[in-house]
Amino acid sequence: MRVTNLEPGNVAGTEFSNVRYHGDDDKAAKVYDGFKTMTGDDIGNILLWLIESPAHINVNRLEVMPVAQTYNGLTIAKQDS
């Protein structure tokens, strides 16, 4: 049996920020202003790659983030619009 811990950083287009801001869509959208996030499709493609990997290979842990985000405190480098 293979088990992978997939740890994505910022992913836009999900309900995460909407829940965080209690359904305030404008506030939730502003979280992602000024930088290119990952999408649900990006994460889906990674999952597909994991599933289609040869049976003798296991990826134990995979941390992925958009290039504008660092792992140190999850800092985001936003660009001026």
Quick overview of this protein structure:
This protein has 81 residues and is an alpha+beta fold. It is built from 3 helices and 2 strands.
Blueprint of the fold:
Elements: E1 5-8, H1 16-20, H2 25-30, H3 40-52, E2 61-64
Approximately what portion of the residues adopt beta-strand conformation? 5-15%
Number of domains: 1
Nearest-integer average pLDDT: 87
Structural class given helices, strands, pairing? alpha+beta
In what order do the strands lie side by side in the largest sheet?
1-2
Distance between the termini: 47 Å
Form type: elongated
Overview of the molecule:
The chain has 81 residues and is an alpha+beta fold. Helix content is 30%, strand content 10%. The chain has helices spanning 16-20, 25-30, 40-52, and strands spanning 5-8, 61-64. Strands 1-2 form a two-stranded parallel sheet. It is elongated.
Structure keywords:
2 strands, two-stranded parallel ribbon, elongated, alpha+beta, single chain, 81 residues
